[in-house]
Amino acid sequence: MRSPRRRLTYRTAPNRAACPLGERLSTAQDRMIGALQVIGERHPGEAVAAVTHAVMIRLAVAGLTKVDGEQWRIPVGRGSLTLMRVHDGRIQVASFPTGDDVD
Question: Cα–Cα distance between 86 and 46 in angstroms, integer?
Answer without folding.
Answer: 10
